[in-house]
Amino acid sequence: MIPIEYFLTLGAILFGLGLFGVLSRRSAILILMAIELMLAGVSINFIAFASYLDTDAFSGLIFALFVITVAAAEVGLALGIVLRLFRERRTSNVDEASDMRW
Amino acid sequence: MLKRIPLPSQFDRIIISGGITVGAIGLPLGIVLVALVAFGVISAPEMVFFVAAFIVILGALGCVLLPNIVHAALSLTATLIGVAALYLLLMSEFLALVQVLVYGGGVVLLLLFGLMMTNAQDDPVVTDGSQKPFAFLLVSLLIGTFITLLLAGDWGNPTAHVVPFELFGERLFREFAVPIIIVAVLLDVAITGALVNVHTASSDLPEESE
Amino acid sequence: MPDISVTIGMQQAWLLPAMPVVAFLIISFFRKLLPREGDFLAIIGMLGILLVTLFIIIDFQGFFHDGEFHPGEANVYAFDWVRISADNFLFLIEFSTYIDAISVVMLIAISIVGLMVAIYSMGYMQGEDRYGWYFAVLSLFVAAMLLLVTSGSLVWMYLAWEGVGLASYLLIGHYWERQSAAEAAKKAFITTRIGDVGLLIGIILLWKATGSFDIQTIIAAATSGQIGETYLTIAMLALFAGAVGKSAQFPLHVWLPDAMEGPTPASALIHAATMVVAGVYLIARFSPVYEVVLVARDVILYTGLLTAFLAATMGLVTSDIKRVLAFSTISQLGFMFVALGVGAVGAAMFHVLTHAFFKALLFLGSGSVIHATGRQEVEYLGGLRHKQPVTAATFIIGSLALAGIPIFAGFWSKDEILHAVSGYASPFVYIVLAGTALLTAIYTTRLVLLTFFGSPRDRSAFDHAHESPSSMTGPLLLLGLLATVSGFFVFDAVGELFGFSGGIGYLVYLHHPHAFHIDWAFASIATVSSLTGVIIGWVYWHGGAERAIKARTWSPDLHALLVNRYYLDELYQGIVNKVVLGLAGIVAWFDKKIINETGVDGGAQFIGYFGYRLKFLQTGKIPNYALGIATGILVLSVMVLARA
Amino acid sequence: MTDIFGQTLNLNYVLLLPEIVLLIFSMLVIGIDAFKRQLNISGNVPVGLALAGLVVALTLSILQVNMDEDFARLIQVDSFTSFFRILFIAITLVLIVGSHEYIEKSVSHVGEFYGLLLLATVGAMLMASARELLTAYLAIELLSFSLYIAVSLARSDRRSGEASLKYVLLGGVASASLLYGLSMIYGVTGATQYHEISAVLSAGDTGLTTPLLLGLVLIIVGLGFKASAVPFHMWTPDAYEGAPIPVTAFLSATSKAATIALFLRWFGGPLLPIASDWQFILSGVAVATMVVGNLVALQQVNIKRLLAYSSIGQMGYMLMAIVAVGSGFGSDATSAVLVHLAGYIITNLLVFISVTHFFNQTGQEEITSFKGLAQSNPYLALMITAGLFSLAGMPLLVGFFTKFILFQAVVSAGHLGLVTVAVVASTVSLYYYLMVVRQMYLYEPEDGTEQWRLSLTGYVTTLALFVSLVVFGLWGTPLYAAADAAAAGMF
Amino acid sequence: MTENDGYFLIALIVLPLLSAVSLMIIPSKERALIVGLTAISSLVMFFVSIYVFMAYSFDGSTFQGVMSYPWVENVGLLGENGISLKVGIDGVTASLVLLTGIVVLPGTWVSWKIQHRLKDFFILFYILTAGVYGVFVLLDLFFWFLAYETALLPMYLLIAVWGSTRKEYGAMKLMMMLMAGSIPIFVAIFALFAEVGLGTFDMEVLLSASKDEHFQKIFFPLVVIGCGTLGAMFPFHSWSPDGHAAAPTAVSMVHAGVLMKVGAFGVVRLGVQMMPEGALFWGPALVALGITAALYGAISALRQTDMKMLMGFSSISHMGYVFVGLGTMNVIGMTGAVLQMTAHGLMTALFFLLIGAMYDQSHNRDLPNFSGLAKQMPIWSVFFVFASLASLGLPGLSGFIAEVHIFIGAFRSYPIVGGLAVLTAAITTTYLMRALAQAFFGEANPKWDSLNEMTWIERSGAAVLVGAILLLGLWPSPWIDRIAPSLSQIPGLMM
């Protein structure tokens, strides 16, 4: 069988890559995608734990299900805001959305 | 707005580049993996894991590195589908299904529409920020630390189990009724939010200064 | 009069300061409402003092018998002023009076001169601004002075000591509209205060060693050898520092000449007769202790000697009539300290008494001259004996007393001091002191000649001059009498005449029952040297004083040195300006720049600057913010990794 | 009903009545508002409905004060929950009453706005009452989602969208971190129920210390983001500045309080057995928060940003107290936190409502625009001064009492060093509060500024808050007793 | 003091607060009403203070007039009597209460001529007064600290709104420094509560509870630094000159006269009484700081020209004596320190009253600008000379009796310090005499012919202070008999 560590490592890498995306991207939508990557890493964790360690209660599965749902909702919500920003400023570049600072 | 998006050529390029990638890297790797399975060094599920993991990581890298936004979005799809494959490996078909449907189908499409509506394709400034090298260093360290911390733990030697579908549903709707209600409200909020922001009456928006 | 002495006597010594205090309070608050601004109250107070002093002297006789003084209950306990008590511990400051022969001598001087000066002032101060205030302060001074000499407790003595300083300050600065008067008052107060630092330290040191502020207890403890010698020496030297300040001894003598900015009668009382001898009184009071600490006594001796000589030389060239007298006062005080330094307390106190009379006389005389002419520089006076015969006569009497011409009071006391010094080991002291006596005679003669003889040099002043009113000449005459005869008091026979069983000599000579004895050899030497001085003075300054002017050109440097008072004022001023104010400047700079601007404001600015730098982390860009989060995650995970 | 393991599930929906009522009313508000043109109803109906819902929910919450029961092992209705329910509902109530003029004037989509406020309140209430990780997570998201939108609702203000974007994107990162942390906790303990986690962790070494530590770090990151802990605070000033002022107030009050409630629930409950593992992390974060928050506040020129940094600093104090919760003084420290939280919220509401009214009148939010307020509106100047002084912990006001209790609890738990930092930081904070006070009292108003008055509701709310500020400042017993009871419910 | 006299102590706190609240209700146009109200309430406070002082009996019990109302108890970390409204005085506070009453009375009087927002001034002023009284009479650490901060809080606005010369800077600096000073006090209070561990802030309990010696050694310096800041102890004195220069008359009076004593009193109550072993250990350091401050302040004052700056540095110097006295750790020295608090309070209040009386007319305080003021303002000058004499420690006035105790106390333990302290008195003489000679005497400067004599109100105010100075100087027993027995109960104290 596949050791659980494989999944955890993969989860960590996905999480890290997602974070990297957030840090290095300028487009609001790409940042959203990167967040999805992070959440995917989390989901892998949850499901791995659920099916390896918590076989009776499998709460992790339920958790992952909700995570996916919430992530989807968040994308919808965030996209709305991005669109609004785009309509206000003709850009989805987050670096330009820096009227407020210091 | 739509005519500005050169869909066909994009897909062409993706298919070509994807094919070359799979051919150049995937094939030798696949051969190696098959060989390893054949010689009994790794099991078949492991081989599947490695293939899926390969796709996932590659897709993730593509998502965060590719300069072309549509390419990145498509890489994300690859990743998400790879993740779904992993879910299958983890014996949860249901979640794999949800993953493909919700993410591969819904979210990515949503994102693509978002990209299109924000004219991201034409926006020359939408590339990577200046802190990319530093972010790379930082994230490498971070991943290293995470993995070190994770692997330092003694996880034992558990095996994966299948969760019966009915049990899953029963538990979900019996015990987790409140979360479901909350999620329902949450979705309602999200819709409201999206509506409010997208449907902002033009009078509410400040005059655009161009 | 034994009946009265039961009711008023040494037990009622507290009345002495109380009466003038009442006068002070009434005059200072109600002088606008009182006729003559209440000067009569001051006079009444002085009369009361004289009366009480008389009763005290009568009471005091009772302690004299068998040629010895038996104090008995002279130390009168009055009340606890401060009392902190606990197990095995008592901190007590009590108010008490103590009268002995020294006090009585002082009381006589104060009461007589005080009364004379008060009466004299009625004429002298007539029509001045702040007439009543002057009398109020005069009363305050007398009160403090009497408290000083009657107090049995060192703390109360210190209180009075500062009180006379205050009165002196107020009187020197009486004409405060004159900047010079204000400066002189300031100088007097600060200079004496520097001495008082020593006095207070001495008092506390003595308390620390004995646990008491009672003078007699302290003396008893010190003489019985309870206190280590070094410790005691330091304490007694500290006390002497107070005396140096108050009695204008070198190096703190500089205030006294300037103090002549005050009204002349006040100078007569304070800066000649009474306050300045407080130092002498203090040392005399502690003389049994100084018998034990000979090092301290030597310090007193040489300080006195140096002061006497220096002051006399300065007196030679000073032109201001009052300042000449001031220098002579300093010089005479030096004589007294020399006497104390050789242990001749009796001689010192005798000189205190005679000096009080003749110096008060001289001051009042000079006041009369100033009052009449409006000038006090001798260069502008002359020939006044025609215009002011009474003043001139009394002034000459005083001068003769000061110069030490036989039969006048000063002769007896000064001779006594010289005699005491002659018994002292080093002939050098005697020679210097005798030389100083000679100098005294010279400058005294100079003063008299320039003022009252020769021809007037300022015509308008001379024409304007007139004899002073009787309120002024009366005291002059009385004091002239005293200056003539008071020296005889030392003879037993005179004492018997006044009803003292052992003679006043015993009183003055304290516990030296061998009392006064005159050594004709020394007396003649002294007389000769005084007469020589008078003659030298006559030679140089009679007529037009051409010789004196010629002598001045003989050594202009020396003359300049003397005129400028050995440049001590300049030196002190320099020290104050350069060293003290310089140090103050450094400290003020340190406070402003280092503590305030660098430490406090700088600290605040540093914090603000820190915030200012930090706020620019807030770039407004989402990836930067996310970087913050990521950095946080990394740092925290590395932290836990390091810990795990 | 029983669950799949055959254990009974308590499905007594009465327990959730306050939340349910609020949900229904929020839907009503949103729904009616959407059709208000068609139904031809006045603009006051949404606000009336929202208030009615809040009042009903408040009544129900008060009725449930003494309850201690769980709902399907997901929600615990105990005194701790009741404390926060009442607190949160009261906050929303006061905010709506105190600033409805502003909302009607400067907020777009008023109906949705009220609905979202109610929903956010529900989210906050669930955060305080959850006893299971998933529920807690969803509650956080409910609160956050509502606020993401609410932040973006300032009418005619470009900053609003920007603020919302920052909030939502960074919030996504933070909730991913939080989830990762939760997954670790789940992986190590195999449970999502608080009491089960607690049981596993207190049973001893699981052999999985390092993953657990990683989980703790990420949970602290996730919650720290919500609580604006440094260095996860950077969204705060921008979101505060861009949001409509009542939302800013809501962010600084409800959102923060709910996060602290969650902190207490988690770190005082399931994670308490491993206190020594997270205390040092949290101390570091708390110190950084106190220092950075107060230092940067010194340099602000916008009142909302100033208050943002000030609330960051305040969060530092509370995080510090949560460290103390781990030191064996759980109940005492918790009640101290609750006291301080309540005091902080009363104060903050007073300040924000006052600022709202100031903005209504002048349209300004620069600190310098407060110039001469003491003459143009002495009442409001007094209110703002009292509020700011209370935030600085000055005496006679509630801030002094609560800070005293809070710091004392932390010292009693043995963290003198932390308190020293806190006291220093709190002194620094006085400086920037005084900067505002100075503008109001020292300078003359601009020429042509006339005296003006607040609306009636403005007077009522500010006065009520001011009175409680003073009363609790001098006689903190009711507050402390309530907090003590609430803390007792948790331990 | 009888049981019921505790009501008078409570009245001391309630009266000023009540006045402040009443003032809030009165419309600001009603000047007469404001003046009347403040006149009555200041007089009542004055007499209650005197009564409290007189009623304190010598029988030696530590705290008298003790009254306690439970406030917050049995919740959280508070046990029985956790926080209680507890009042009571000992000999030290009896004399300080009297001082407050004496200073506030003329402080109120001289403030009546303020034209700008008189009502607001008095509201803040009375809150400040309530805080000061509170610090002296409250026996619960929570309320003590509350009162302490209450006394500081109004200071900012009082100075910044009604002040002069660089008022914003001075006010902010004063406020921030004093608040920074309360940091270590705050910390020490918490530590004390935790150390005793009885769940109560009752000071009587805390005083008698045993505290670890190590603890005392650590926290005593914190208290000294904290309270020392308010007491203008070197090197935390920097607010004093600037703050005093900026403050309005009454505030300077109360601040220098009373509030600085609150700081020194804090050292007594929280430091020496609470942590005697720590005090014994740190006594030499306190003495060293004190004498440094005394010399430093006096020497700095030599170079000051602004009268209020001069007084600021002079206060630093005089407060230095207080710390010397406290550091001697013997009853005489400490009694002297408390006496010095009173003496300096009276004297410096008089100074600031006088400076204010002149500054209100001339708007100038720079000594070199003046000359011969005694001509134009004779009565004022007499008062000023009197104040100077009191300040320089002239025997018979209040300063002397206090200083002599301090000197003696210092000499018992540290003769060198004692010597330096006496020397400082001479330096004090120097700078005061210089100031007098320069500005008050000499030729009158016609530029200031327009200056009027003090008003009768100001004269009465000054007279009250002069009377108190004389009383204390000539008859100190009432004070000493109250102070010394209270102090001698501190364990470990040398007699």
User: In DSSP terms, counting alpha (H) and pi (I) runs of 4 or more, how many helices of chain C?
Assistant: 28
Q: Please report the first level of CATH classification, the CATH class of chain A.
A: Mainly Alpha
Task: Quote the CATH topology of chain A.
Answer: Helix Hairpins
Pairing-aware structural class of the strands and helices of chain C? mainly alpha
Number of strands of chain A: 0
Mean of the pLDDT scores of chain C?
Answer: 84
Given as residue ranges, the uncertain stretches of chain A (5+ residues, pLDDT < 50) are none
Overall pLDDT score of chain A: 89
Helix content of chain C: over 70%
State the end-to-end CA separation of chain A. 53 Å
Outline the structure in words.
The complex is a heteropentamer of chains A (102), B (210), C (644), D (491) and E (495). Chain A has helices at 4-24, 28-52, 59-89. With 102 residues, chain A is mainly α. The relative contact order of chain A is 0.13. The mean pLDDT of chain A is 89. Chain C has a two-stranded antiparallel sheet. In chain C, α17 (389-403) packs parallel to α21. Residues 1-6 of chain C have low confidence and may be disordered. Chain E has helices at residues 6-25, 31-55, 91-111, 118-137, 141-152, 155-162, 167-196, 203-208, 213-230, 239-246, 249-273, 276-302, 307-328, 331-362, 373-376, 378-391, 398-413, 415-440, 456-474, 477-487, and strands at 64-72, 83-89. With 495 residues, chain E is mostly helical. The two termini of chain E are 26 Å apart. Classes of the chains: A mainly alpha (102), B mainly alpha (210), C mainly alpha (644), D mainly alpha (491), E mainly alpha (495). Chains in contact: A-B, A-C, A-D, B-C, B-D, C-D, C-E, D-E. At the A-B interface, α1, α2 and α3 of A face α2, α3, α4, α5 and α6 of B.
Key descriptive features of the protein:
heteropentamer; A: 102 residues; mainly alpha; 3 helices; E: mainly alpha; two-stranded antiparallel ribbon
Could you outline the blueprint of secondary structure elements for this entry?
The complex is a heteropentamer of chains A (102), B (210), C (644), D (491) and E (495).
Chain A: H1 4-24, H2 28-52, H3 59-89
Helix pairs in contact in A: 1-2, 2-3
Chain B: H1 7-38, H2 44-65, H3 69-89, H4 93-117, H5 132-152, H6 165-175, H7 177-198
Chain E: H1 6-25, H2 31-55, E1 64-72, E2 83-89, H3 91-111, H4 118-137, H5 141-152, H6 155-162, H7 167-196, H8 203-208, H9 213-230, H10 239-246, H11 249-273, H12 276-302, H13 307-328, H14 331-362, H15 373-376, H16 378-391, H17 398-413, H18 415-440, H19 456-474, H20 477-487
Antiparallel strand pairs in E: 1-2
Helix pairs in contact in E: 1-2, 1-4, 2-3, 3-4, 3-11, 3-14, 3-19, 3-20, 4-5, 4-6, 4-11, 5-7, 6-7, 7-9, 7-10, 9-11, 9-12, 10-11, 10-13, 11-13, 11-14, 12-13, 12-18, 13-14, 13-17, 13-18, 14-16, 14-17, 14-19, 14-20, 16-18, 16-19, 17-18, 17-19
